[in-house]
Amino acid sequence: MRTPARVSACLFALFSAAGAGAAPQLATAPFRPDSGTLTVRCGMLIDGISDTPVRDATVIIREGRVTYAGPTAGATVQGEVLDLGKHTCLPGLIDMHDHIADRPNDTHDLRIYFTRDAATQRVVAQENANITLAAGFTTIRSPGAYIAWAENDIRDRVNRGEVAGPRIQAAGIYLTIPGGGGDLLVPGVAEKDIPAHVRMGVARGPEQFAEKARLAVAHGVDFIKVIASGAVLAYGGVPGSPEMTPEELRAVVQVAHAAGIKVAAHAHGAQSIKEAIEAGADTIEHASLADDEAIALAAKRKVALSMDVYNGDYIATVGREQGWPEEFLRKNDETTEAQRQVFTKAWKAGAPIVYGTDAAVYPHGLNGRQFRIMVARGMPAMDAIRAATSVSARYMGWEDRVGALAPGRFGDLIAVPGNPLEDITLLEKVPVVVKGGLLFKYPAK
Ligand SMILES: [Zn+2]
Is the same domain home to 362 and 413? Predict the structure, then answer.
């Protein structure tokens, strides 16, 4: 094997120009191997699927895709070499619940969306995309934005290579009842003063909802987001109480599945979780107040729960500091600990768990903080990692593309110093990010 140190020294030199001393950021331009092939030498490899890691491993990425991932002994070095001999390599992480077009400091006064122009919206989304990729999340699902189709815009700009960011699946709009958890009716603002593009997904009755679902499909969304029951950060409503009816949910699922796309249902309460599962939803977000029956149903039907078990801590502290509406804070207190207990039960009952943080309620870039709560609440570290890699990929319908370091999938790789199976918080500060075989982040020397 060629000495990797020589080549990696060049990479160090390249990236040390990016800003020594400061927290590692994305490179101004990603490093693209001249040969089209990048060989990554890893002290340890967690491939996103296997039960056990491989020590002294090599990953080879050619033309953006993984061609080899396994023991170094079985690898033939090709192209440029990135020496991460003291690091653990993992697949790029996946966040199933990252509102890429919104930011948390806007959440407490929703009126900001009534005046935000398209140019500002694009800057916000672009900043979030940069930060999210730098945090090691190379793929996300963006389940709705208040400004219609803002997610589609950032997704397409990342795909065209204009913006550094994760691979994105966009839902585009929230499908929600009038005054529901995804509607932007704000107390004290007359309905006529609210622009139509922030209420694009509001409907009532199965026919209207089917029509909204077809509108979303026509706009090229990757999946559909329904607000089955009340939201925590919305006025009126109880987080657990059903909003959309079973008939409305079924109408949306029918349109989505006929178009070959999945449905993510926002549901806190046990009844609405069960109704969403019965209606055919593919994943349930939040699931804070699930009962034993709802958990058993999710386990039986293999419907994944995406539970944002960290962000209650953020809302409780920052929300109080910033004077968020008392109603939001109260609902947050009512759902945070309850949700963590449900998480433990659901995991033990065999319900599929995917990694979803509700980033945008808490800041983009802190996505990795949720791992520590999942592990503290009973999930083995390897399973928490799989929840954020291969399991999420499966529920996105992207298991042929992302979620594992395995031949054929995209060359999306992160690395951390040390062993994340012993210290899961290592995933909160990811110093190395490769996406599609391009090196986007490397620590300055
Ligand atoms: Zn959300």
Answer: no
